[in-house]
Specification:
With 282 residues, this protein is an alpha+beta fold. The protein is 35% helix and 14% strand. Strand 7 and strand 8 form a beta hairpin. It is globular, with a radius of gyration of 22 Å.
């Protein structure tokens, strides 16, 4: 039996502390799927939404292979990968964490003015800022800034320095995808004027409608932390559409209805909406 590699020893230590780990090969990338799982032939991770139903014992499906199971980490199916591994990766979302990956000095300078201080870990080119709490991952949220949390992996580079802070709204807002622009209508668009005081950026009613639909979907698909998801979604909608006066009572009612289908009561919806407005200064 080959001697245990340093990455494997490190992985066992991290897994024992509750951090899901996986080996990374040269280039700091996961090992490829085994032949039986190539091209998702196993049926695993349809549409990138979940790890299952694949039960492959090998290093498959990138971040979804990350585990805290010491027997799996020590298994013969993983042995060759550990001998070839150059470092250890981990699934931040699986550990209840979010990594703000800052790739250069400009990104770090921005974070120091825009984000609350938290635990920081030096990287080859920049820093990882680590917050307590999971969220959707998204790359290139700003120049030189990626978000790594749910359904993503990050390279483990040490414990870092500083006290870890709770995940702030400023980071959550970075991962909110804006609706894609739609082709202008051939007729004049009629957009409710409302009482907003900002310039309206919406070219057609479809632009706003798509944003509301995406917000409804985000709420109804929440599998946990529903109250927090509702607040963050309200915050995202208001940050995009709250100043131009386009939101109507009908739009707000749709969002409240979506939240109530997930168990939120009217008071919770109202409080979350008002808190989001206060946060944005509306």
């Amino acid at each position: 039996m080959s001697a245990m590699s340093y990455p494997q020893r490190m992985a066992l230590s991290l897994a024992a502390s509750g951090m899901p780990v996986l080996p990374l090969r040269r280039g700091k990338v996961p090992f490829g799927n085994c032949p039986a799982c190539a091209g998702n032939a196993c049926g695993g991770r349809p549409n990138m939404k979940a790890p299952g139903p694949c039960q492959c014992p090998g290093i498959c499906h990138a971040w979804a292979a990350a585990t805290t199971d010491l027997d799996v980490i020590n298994s013969s199916a993983w042995a060759e990968a550990w001998q070839r591994a150059v470092c250890v990766g981990y699934h931040p979302g699986g550990a209840g964490l979010t990594v703000v990956d800052l790739d250069d000095a400009d990104a770090i300078a921005w974070a120091r003015t825009a984000l609350p201080a938290t635990r920081t870990v030096p990287t080859t080119r920049g820093e990882h800022w680590i917050y307590r709490g999971a969220m959707p991952s998204r790359n290139a949220v700003r120049p030189g800034v990626d978000i790594k949390s749910a359904m993503a992996y990050a390279r483990y580079l040490g414990t870092g320095t500083g006290t870890m802070a709770d995940l702030p709204d400023a980071v959550l807002a970075l991962a909110v995808k804006e609706p894609s622009p739609v082709r202008p209508a051939t007729h004049a668009a009629v957009v409710p004027a409302g009482a907003g005081r900002g310039e309206c950026p919406h070219r057609t009613p479809a632009y706003l409608a798509r944003g509301i639909a995406m917000a409804e979907q985000r709420i109804t698909e929440a599998s946990s932390a529903v109250h927090a998801t509702v607040y963050r979604t309200f915050l995202a909608v208001l940050s995009r559409h709250g100043r131009c006066g386009c939101l109507t009572d009908a739009h707000v009612a749709r969002l409240f209805t979506a939240a109530q289908t997930r168990g939120e009561n009217l008071r919770h919806c109202t409080d979350a909406w008002n808190n989001a407005r206060t946060t944005l200064g509306l």
